[in-house]
Amino acid sequence: MPYTDDYMETQKITKALTGLGFNTVESDIYIALLKYGKSTVSDIAKNSGIKRPTIYQYIDGLATRDLIRKTFKGKRLLYYPEDPKKFLHLTENLKKRAEEIFPDLQRLFMKSSAKPVIRFYEGKESVRSIYREITSTPKVVWSVFSAERYFQMFTEKDGNEFLNNIYKNGGELRDMVLSTPSGIEYVKRKRGGKVAKSKLLPADFNFSVDMLIVGDKTVFISFEDMIAVVIENQEIANQQMQFLKFVWRRI
Questions:
Q1: Under 8 Å between Cβ of 244 and 145
Q2: DSSP class of residue 122?
Q3: Gyration radius (Cα) of the chain, Å
Q4: 113-158: per-residue pLDDT in tens?
């Protein structure tokens, strides 16, 4: 059986009211009053199909919004709709309230968005994907690493891919390399290519976890356990970067 025009119009209004924050019960009560005018709760129940206890639960909310009014006819309590022009004021008030609360909402959002995002990766391919992500940047990549561990993990082809990523994106590389035979050779032969400036760390400087920093990302990589941790937070990245810059200037 095809829907009537009245049914379609009611559905359209209900959908619009829902978009303005009404629930389906409030919408049905309000539409019933618009259609039939002054009504008792029993009338509304009959015209809307909503049970009386449910109507009592929601009807005062419509009155609070100044969309309907109450009146008495003898001892009978009647409800009737205000002119729908009230809706214009309703939407204006909603906009005004939204504008008033916006700065507070924005502050809450900024606080939550500033919380670190931490990602964990495991396995050779996952670690390789981190290097691809970190080196695809126009920024300076700071690296503290062991050439022995790095070249046990990655092939020369991998290394060239990562360096080419930095080059293509207009980035730069600052390497601080563990002082080992492979590390000494890496710095001496400038294996970081034209995008890199590399320095050898002091012989007594030792570490077991490599580190990369770029933008708001700080990455810790354990080649022994084949895991990586990525922390996305600008303040953390800035602090770690300041430490690396301090070390860089003194080696």
A1: no
A2: E
A3: 33
A4: 567 889 999 999 999 999 999 999 999 999 999 999 999 989 889 9
The pTM score is 0.56
Coil vs helix vs strand at 202: coil
* Cα–Cα nearest to 30, from 20, 19, 49, 44: 44
In angstroms, rounded to a whole number, what is the distance separating the alpha carbons of residues 141 and 64? 59
Q: 127 forms bridges with which residues in the sheet?
A: none
Dump the DSSP string for 52-92.
HHHHHHHHHHHHHTTSEEEEEETTEEEEEEPPTTHHHHHHH
Q: Are 119 and 221 in contact (CB under 8 A)?
A: no
Fold (topology level) of 5-82: Arc Repressor Mutant, subunit A (1.10.10)
The fold of 117-249 is Endonuclease; Chain A (3.30.870)
